[in-house]
Amino acid sequence: MEFNHINYFNEFEREYEVLKNASDDVLTVSLDIIHYIEKKLKELFKWLKKHVFKTLQEEIYFFKELKPRMVSKLLFYKELLKLETSLPPSKKNKKKHYEELLSDIHQYVVCNREFYQYYRSKTTIKDKDLFVRRSYKDIVRDDCCLINFDSKLCTSHDFNVAIIIANDMFTSYLENKLDELNGNITAKYNPTISKITWTGTKMELAELIYGLYYKKMLNGGNIDIKEIARGLCVAFNIDLDDKALYRCLQDIKKRYPVNAIFLQNLAEVANNKFRGEDY
User: Fold this and answer.
1) Would you place residue 191 in the very low, low, confident or very high pLDDT band (cuts 50, 70, 90)?
2) Angle 13-169-134 (CA atoms, 0-180°, nearest 5)?
3) In 50, 90, 125, 216, which residue has its Cα 20 to 30 A from 254's Cα atom?
4) Any alpha helices (H) in the chain, and if so which ranges?
5) Each residue of 122-178: pLDDT tens digit?
């Protein structure tokens, strides 16, 4: 049977969510996820060595969207494991350590500002150069670390995207820890509140959040969009901070001809089920 990489990544995300919520112990979860992702990457790389994408758009999507999501999780949990196994015991030193790590991330952003701006702005003009594999090594243009990379498994910038995503995840984690130390922790960070896990995309969740907000379905419309987002994130065991929610809104507005793709599909599926099944 032919390998379907879209289904492969969807299955990966579902299993990842199960592992992420399997325990409250950070070290156990980190180790389990690291081992799982390393196994999945070996399988993926074996396929990728022989695979030829049908179109440039398909290849760009793979290396700009799909692969970085998986690799970013590996980077994040490796950093998390490193952090939690070397954390200073005192509250003061913990706070200092968290702040130093946040400073390191900020410095990385500053040093890579140009690519951050390109990626964050959803620009596509350079995608062919950045996210399509090459059969040759460009020593002049490429980073030196790419000299030893297998050109069948990566492009010049897919790993950079993974770093950005991992840094976002790590930033949220560190800020959360600082909130805990400062006594500002809120219910949305309590992993024991709900056993329900959102296994769709964050973009799909954002559609649901804005749909409920615009329709004024909660508190008679007397509720802020951020409160709705926090409530659903608690209920569904998913992190979607204010900045990410806003970025999703901007992406949704750019869609054509249908903006609320998920909500439309949700209605279609529900209508088909209602018509075809006896309740």
Assistant:
1) very low
2) 70
3) 216
4) 5-20, 26-48, 56-61, 67-84, 91-111, 113-120, 127-130, 158-181, 202-215, 225-236, 242-254, 261-276
5) 889 999 999 998 765 555 555 544 455 677 889 989 999 999 999 999 998 998 888
Helices (H), 62-156: 67-84, 91-111, 113-120, 127-130
Closest CA to 169 of 79, 231, 62, 61: 79
**Amino acid of residue 261:** I
Query: Distance (Å, rounded) from C-alpha 77 to C-alpha 33?
Result: 7
List CB contacts of 163: < 8 A, sequence separation 6 or more: 72, 75, 108
How many Å apart are CA 91 and CA 97, to the nearest integer?
Answer: 10
Residue 108: exposure state from Cβ atoms within 10 A (0-12, 13-18, ≥19): middle
DSSP code for 136? S
CB burial readout 234-265, b (16+ within 10 A) else e:
bebbbebbeebbebbbeebeeeeeeebebbee
Contact in structure between 229 and 240 (CB atoms under 8 Å) = yes
pTM > 0.85: no
Tell which wins on pLDDT, 221 or 188: 221
Which pLDDT tens digit goes with each residue over 36-46? 999 999 999 99
Q: Which has the closest alpha carbon to 169: 38, 30, 43? A: 30
Per DSSP, the three-state class of 131 is: coil
